[in-house]
Amino acid sequence: MPMAMLRPSARWTLRALSSIPNNVKPISTTFSRGKATLPDLPYDYGALEPYISGKIMELHHSKHHNTYVTSYNAAVEKLYEATDSPVKQIELQPLITFHGGGHINHSLFWQNLAPKSAGGGEPPKGKLGAVIKDSYGSLENLQKVFQQKLAGIQGSGWAWLVKDKETGAIGVKTYANQDPVVGQFEPLLGIDAWEHAYYLQYENRKAEYFSAIWHVINWTAAEKRFE
């Protein structure tokens, strides 16, 4: 599909995912001939237990993420068919933003996680570790800021550790619904605060989920994005 045929929201969806460094992209191709595809996970569904259950991972990946993929593709196809109707194009933008953002966010999120046996939970090293220490004093302090930001999300959304492309500074920002990190900031590490990410296991105890997920955070992926 020619890029010129896409409205801005569709174009940034493609650009945002294509900007992920090659060494941290999912195993499978996420876009094929202009269409989004569900990426394979680099670990089994049960590999993150007991912190995230295998059942949650299976539903989250194979059902929720897959719905974002199929719905995004359907919306883009309708956008392509509506090239002569600006009104229809504008009407489709929220769908493309929501489902395209959901695909981008989850593709990054799976890379943010790793089993304990594969380094999950090990603290960041190198340049990112040094910047975290300079900016927050310690990893523990950064995690506290993350917890506060996550707790403050009303409804559904994400908290992201981001890098300012202009200054190189890092910070924690929240995004509503499935809005992706685009523009001035580069996403380094994100935590999904939607109920489907935790409710089957943690029910209404989302603070426990926000604490538990640090045991399987893959800081190596975040380090590669930072560099």
Describe the structure.
- This protein has 227 residues and is an alpha+beta fold.
- The protein has helices spanning 8-18, 54-81, 86-111, 126-136, 139-151, 199-202, 206-212, 219-226, and strands at residues 31-32, 35-36, 157-164, 170-176, 185-192.
- It has a three-stranded antiparallel beta sheet with strand order 4-3-5. The protein has a two-stranded antiparallel ribbon with strand order 1-2.
- β3 and β4 (170-176) form a beta hairpin.
Total number of β-strand segments?
5
The structural class is alpha+beta
Quaternary organisation: single chain
| SSE series | HEEHHHHEEEHHH
What percentage of amino acids are in beta strands? 5-15%
Shape: globular
Supply the number of helical segments: 8
Helix content: 40-55%
User: End-to-end span in angstroms?
Assistant: 32 Å
The major beta sheet can be summarized as: 3 strands, antiparallel
The low-pLDDT segments are: 1-33
Q: What Rg do the Cα atoms give?
A: 17 Å
Task: Summarize the topology.
Blueprint: H1 8-18, E1 31-32, E2 35-36, H2 54-81, H3 86-111, H4 126-136, H5 139-151, E3 157-164, E4 170-176, E5 185-192, H6 199-202, H7 206-212, H8 219-226
Antiparallel strand pairs: 1-2, 3-4, 3-5
Helix pairs in contact: 1-3, 2-3
Concise summary:
The protein is of the alpha+beta class.
